[in-house]
Amino acid sequence: MSEFRVACIQTCTGTTPEDNLIGLTSLISEAAREGAEFILTPETCNFMPQNKQARCATMLPESEDKVVKSLAALAAELKITLLAGSVILAGDGDKAVNRSICFNSLGEVVARYDKIHLFDVSLDNGERHSESAHYEAGQQAIIADLTFGKLGMTVCYDVRFPALYHVLASHGADFISVPAAFTKMTGEAHWHVLLRARAIETGCFIFAPAQVGIHENGRKTYGHSVIVSPWGRILADAGLETQTIYADINTEQVQMARRQIPALEHGRHFEPPA
């Protein structure tokens, strides 16, 4: 059993990494003062680009990205475990990667996860997204070994693919991170339902820090960062404000939920329809 305090930071990220870093540093430092030992930021926390040209001109490889370097140093300074929910970085080819990075209290990278499922859609309101045109998809599920337990790492659109979450839970995850920048329309319809379902199906805590508001690039994000128990109960919800939410976590609740609903043990192989 492990007990710790978690914090999920909700931000409205802009287009300039330097400005975003100032805001992140302040919020992370405040969360540490409030006793949080594990702090998570949303998806695309280093910057949200105006367009392809701006993204290409701004993104850097991980080894050169100032936000990544600064967050690593901040984790060491504050002696916290810190998840950069995701950062936009230059990939090996022409495309970017949407990468979640977890730092330990020494500022060392303990795990990296590149978003597997990419969001390509044209919405009824005229909004369009084509992540696969700009980003390289990740290829591997990742679990980070933390002092509190095992963290399964996902990003945003991954939440719609329960098979990934089942794999993470089956391989020992106690909690799963879902940093996101959900659109306002889809968030209102699906966000809470999906996160509670993933928690209930896996018997894991869900930590979901999110973007909120109207961003400089015109995107509208839903907010409602949440922390969900393994039983599917929402422990904290940030609503539509730029703020940080907290919860005190006891990992015994993971085993308790799985004893009461041992669904992970009851899956059976079956043939698809003819």
TrEMBL record:
PROSITE patterns: CN_HYDROLASE, UPF0012. Residues 4-251 form the CN hydrolase domain. GO terms for molecular function: hydrolase activity, acting on carbon-nitrogen (but not peptide) bonds, in linear amides. The keyword Electron transport does not apply. Keywords: Hydrolase. InterPro entries: C-N_Hydrolase (IPR003010), C-N_Hydrolase_sf (IPR036526), Nit1/2_C-N_Hydrolase (IPR045254), UPF0012_CS (IPR001110). The keyword Signal does not apply. Belongs to the carbon-nitrogen hydrolase superfamily. NIT1/NIT2 family. This is CN hydrolase domain-containing protein. The lineage of its organism: Bacteria, Pseudomonadati, Pseudomonadota, Alphaproteobacteria, PS1 clade.
